[in-house]
Amino acid sequence: xxxxxxxxxxxxxxxxxxxxxxxxxxxxxxxxxxxxxxxxxxxxxxxxxxxxxxxxxxxxxxxxxxxxxxxxxxxxxxxxxxxxxxxxxxxxxxxxxxxxxxxxxxxxxxxxxxxxxxxxxxxxxxxxxxxxxxxxx
Amino acid sequence: xxxxxxxxxxxxxxxxxxxxxxxxxxxxxxxxxxxxxxxxxxxxxxxxxxxxxxxxxxxxxxxxxxxxxxxxxxxxxxxxxxxxxxxxxxxxxxxxxxxxxxxxxxxxxxxxxxxxxxxxxxxxxxxxxxxxxxxxxxxxxxxxxxxxxxxxxxxxxxxxxxxxxxxxxxxxxxxxxxx
Lengths: 137, 179
Fold this sequence. Notes:
Number of domains of chain B: 2
Distance between the termini of chain A: 35 Å
Structural class of chain B: alpha+beta
Radius of gyration of chain B: 22 Å
Shape of chain A: globular
Structural class of chain A: alpha+beta
Number of helices of chain B: 4
Mean pLDDT of chain B: 79
Oligomer: heterodimer
Helix content of chain A: 25-40%
Largest interface: A-B, 40 and 43 residues
Largest sheet of chain A: 3 strands, antiparallel
Number of strands of chain B: 5
């Protein structure tokens, strides 16, 4: 058991929230694929093991850990099983509490553009399964 | 005949229209001038509308560049947007044929710019514009998906990218543009 009380293995049925800090990361209908692409340094995408409800708890995590001086516009919520179905991995990584990462993104130092194309295809798959949760509906 | 109506440069299209309509002789030629003038004016207005949309999109791109100018703009370790990617994206937008809807813009965690044509969550094309001339793109079209890389010379949008966009969102249908 992790300090947060969650199991060490992220179950397929668990919700993962990716916080959205820029209006360019989503449309009225969906989170854009770019919202799920990995950060170049860690080569992973940071998410939190939390669904749309309870909303207060979700936004509290966003404010406390991600926001800083930024505005949390909303979150893209996706099932861990859907992420895995696209060929990526989901791993618990605390602290901070409830934190997890999406890993296994294609990485090709010999061809960065091909690497990006491969990553985008996977990010599109993940984004297409995600539900957009508005913070200020 | 058109040549029968002298057009001064300062008169411009309104001048041409006035010449056509102001004629007291209701001749076949005058009618032709009037029709031609209307056509020219419609085309001019149409290009201004299209240019206006592109100009607005380019403004949006630069606003995004300002928003994502610092590292960690997303709170999870994203790199700052690359100025080279912004300039290349501007070139790409200018090079897009007028029949193609303008894309949604986003910044990617590595500082590249993402251009997205989204018809629905399961029908979309995403093109990544970085510093270099090779553009990564990927698509989902129902159950069909894939990715590829094409070279952009700064002037002409690569055919395979255009074909993919048009296959997913169609030609110039404003209703298909993401809000």
